[in-house]
Amino acid sequence: MTARIIGHHVEIVFEFKRMPSSDACRPFAVTTVVSGVRLTTSGPGAINRYRVNASRARVVSELAWYAKPPYRLAVSSETIVGFRSREVELSLRAPERVSSLKSCLRGYAPSLHAMPIPRPVLLLRGIDRLSLGASLRYVIADERTATPAAARCLSLRRCIGTLSIGAGRA
The whole model's pTM is what? Predict the structure, then answer.
């Protein structure tokens, strides 16, 4: 497993060496927990759960809300019948200096009843329009309430995803 901080998010790449043929033994979900030094409230940090579709995948979590560096990542998996793996922990290193930033960003800390975009907003670097479109297709491919019809990026600032909802679905 590898992980790196990208702005206000953490990119996590995991790989299972083998995928058992039995559903009871095969990883079904991965849980990630990103924690940091709490600024105000107590709590575990950013907890996300992802369904496992392949032996290797990339997921993105946000940094822990109301927290600051240093950050830690804990990851575990579980089978469909609830058997949990051991937890794997990593210390997350701050990325190399980004423009005027000297270190890691603080986690998102909105005021009560507000959800503004986290600041600063970092520019995408090292990605082109085709790679961004591939990432968008990867994300919407797992959509369960609608069927992905198309996804493309016209620029690095504008992507379009089309989902279709079948008639007569309950």
Answer: 0.68
